[in-house]
Amino acid sequence: MSRIVSALPGRIRIRDRALRDRTRLARIEEALAGLEGIDGLRPNANAGSLVLHFDAARIAVEALEAKVDSIVDAELVRPQAQRRRSLKMQINRGAKLGMLGSLSASLVLAAAGKKSAHAITGSLFVACLGVHLGVHRRSLLR
Questions:
Q1: Which residues are listed as membrane-spanning (predicted)?
Q2: C-beta atoms surrounding 14 within 10 Å
Q3: In a 3-state reduction of DSSP, which class is residue 120?
Q4: How far apart are CA 132 and CA 108, in angstroms?
Q5: Closest by alpha carbon to 29, among 10, 45, 8?
Q6: CA-CA distance, 100 to 77, in Å (whole number)?
């Protein structure tokens, strides 16, 4: 699968979401740097892209594109080590699931006329919301 999004004489841009992984991007950059006719590489992990500058007089664009595709495909096929979610993100995920469950239960109980159970599930929703906001407090106060 070609991940080349633009190819001009002297410049090729590769883009893929998997290139946001800095270690993968570094391995691809190292493999591409060894190709003949490459003048420079400009990786951007935040955008998931890599710009490749080359000498169009020394190498044909089509041949370079084929080499680039094979190198990128070979790297992206490799299994990636699974990163474990941080404790903060696991807590936040539980809080979001708690909010979703307690809100739906609270609405059902309110429709059924069970005021005391509705109040309890509503309190549980507020508690889960407090945990969620506590996890994201820094981004809220910017």
A1: 94-112, 118-135
A2: 26
A3: helix
A4: 23
A5: 45
A6: 36
Q: What is the mean pLDDT of residues 105-109?
A: 96
Cα atoms in the Cβ-side hemisphere of radius 13 Å centred on 49: 12
- Stretch 54-68: mean pLDDT, rounded? 87
Query: CA 62 to CA 73: how far, in whole Å?
Result: 16
**Cβ atoms < 10 Å from Cβ of 48:** 18
- State the DSSP string of 26-67: HHHHHHHHTSTTEEEEEEETTTTEEEEEE-TTTS-HHHHHHH
pLDDT in tens, 69-93: 899 888 888 877 666 778 888 999 9
Percent of the chain with pLDDT over 90: 44
Q: Which neighbouring-strand residues pair with 54?
A: 38
Q: How far apart are CA 90 and CA 124, in angstroms?
A: 18
Cut 0.70: pTM above it? no
